[in-house]
Amino acid sequence: MRVALHTKVRADRIDEYEAAHREVPVELTDAIRAAGARTWTIWRSGTDLFHVLECEDYGRLLAELEKLPVNVTWQARMAELLDVAHDYSDEGADAGLPVVWELP
C-alpha cells in the first residue's frame, strides 16, 4: 500500500530538520524496513512536508515502531522541530491523505 502524509516543520528549524534527516540512525531505518516499509520519501515546500511511503500494512508499521526505543528517541527529536507531527496513535493509521487523482 502507498500512504501520503502531511506534516509541518517549524520555520525556524528547517535547517535542523534537514540536518537530522542526513543522519537518520541505521537502527531506525532497519526497524522501519523490518516493520514492512519498502520506501519512504519526504519532500519539503516551505514548511510543508509531504511524505510518501510504501508498506505492507501502515497500521502494523506504526504499531511496531510506536514503542521502539530508537523511534521514541527520534520522535522526541522531531517533536522539537515540527509544528504538525506524525501521529503514532491508533488514529494515525487512518491519517494518510486521501487520494484525489492518480494517473491511470
Could you please describe the fold and organization of this structure?
With 104 residues, this protein is α+β, with helices and mostly antiparallel strands. The chain has one domain: 2-Layer Sandwich (Alpha-Beta Plaits), CATH 3.30.70.1090. 38% of the residues lie in helices and 27% in strands. The protein contains four helices and four strands; from the N terminus they run βααββααβ. The protein has helices spanning 14-21, 26-34, 58-66, 69-81; strands at residues 2-9, 37-45, 48-55, 82-84. Strands 2-3-1-4 form a four-stranded antiparallel sheet. Strand 2 (37-45) and strand 3 (48-55) form a beta hairpin. The model has no long low-confidence stretch (mean pLDDT 92).
Summarize the structure.
This protein is an alpha+beta fold. Helices cover 38% and strands 27% of the residues.
